[in-house]
Write a structure and sequence with these properties.
Blueprint lengths: L1 H10 L18 H65 L1 H10 L3 H9 L2 H20 L1
Helix pairs in contact: 2-5, 3-5
Length: 140
């Protein structure tokens, strides 16, 4: 056993054994000692195959799910940033305030004063901009 570990240290790099505990020399005496040594050795292999490897697989899928969720939120954020830029550009191209100003000029003076007093044109501009922004956001 001691020579096998020494041979492994020569073949494999040192970082492979960084987390391994230092083996304790076991003295195998008699038949029952040999049976205990073999059962311990087989249990170590069993624990590696049926406990350690499945826990690594579960940990990998937990990490993969968390990474996929992170990417989903990242892409949602980038989509909103893009939609916001498109909405701002679209609103600048439409120029709603000039359309409202041309509509105001055709109104009689008393109606124009009443609309300015109740801030109708500002609210109309705000509602139309919100509607266009909602339209752009729903399309993304």
């Amino acid at each position: 056993m001691k020579y096998l570990l020494f041979a492994l240290f020569l073949i494999l790099p040192f970082s492979t054994f960084a987390a391994l505990p230092i083996p304790v020399e076991q003295e195998v005496t008699g038949l029952m000692g040999m049976v205990k040594f073999v059962t311990d050795f087989l249990y170590t292999i069993y624990a590696f195959i049926f406990n350690y490897i499945p826990s690594l697989i579960v940990d990998f899928f937990v990490w993969l799910t968390a990474w996929a969720l992170k990417m989903k939120f990242y892409f949602m954020y980038q989509g909103l940033v893009f939609a916001h830029e498109v909405a701002i550009l679209f609103l600048d191209l439409i120029d709603i305030s000039s359309a409202v100003n041309t509509a105001i000029s055709s109104l009689p003076q008393d109606m124009k004063q009443l609309a300015v007093d109740v801030r109708f044109f500002e609210s109309l501009t705000l509602v139309v901009e919100a509607w266009i922004t909602r339209l752009v956001y729903s399309g993304s």
